[in-house]
């Protein structure tokens, strides 16, 4: 079972996409300075069943082009089922993970992948010095430059 916090619509996490953001609770990576340690507890939030996801996709379908999962790679089978459901409904998919990489099985269900833990001294995707990588899966190209403003 994957639990999520209340969903949100986001504009900057996936370039040129309007995304439904689903934050999965239960991250165990434990980055120092984590922006939201409340999501470490897997019991926080509500269950993201396939029925609940279908409701969300129906509710937001006119607004969004993409679904971004923040976490969930620790339950790969369930995550792949949910990603497949998003793709079948016609949406692009993205995963933000604090891991350095994820399995090819998960990648097969992704259009975009953000990989890498939070390192405060390196900064996030908007930093030229970031350890994190944002990858277009179809081309395997790094898209970090799209996040850098200056
Ligand atoms: S991967 Fe993200 S949610 Fe998990 S500990 Fe690191 S910053 Fe926090």
Short description:
The protein has 150 residues and is an alpha/beta fold. Helix content is 19%, strand content 21%.
Structure description:
The chain has 150 residues and is an alpha/beta fold. Helices cover 19% and strands 21% of the residues. The strands form two sheets. The protein has a seven-stranded mixed beta sheet with strand order 2-3-5-6-7-8-9. A two-stranded antiparallel ribbon has the order 1-4. The N and C termini lie far apart (41 Å). The structure holds iron/sulfur cluster. Iron/sulfur cluster binds next to loops.
Strand content: 15-25%
Query: What is the count of structural domains?
Result: 1
Q: Order of SSEs, N→C?
A: EEEEHEHEHEEE
Q: From the alpha carbons, calculate the radius of gyration and give it in angstroms.
A: 15 Å
Give the CATH class. Answer: Alpha Beta
End-to-end C-alpha gap = 41 Å
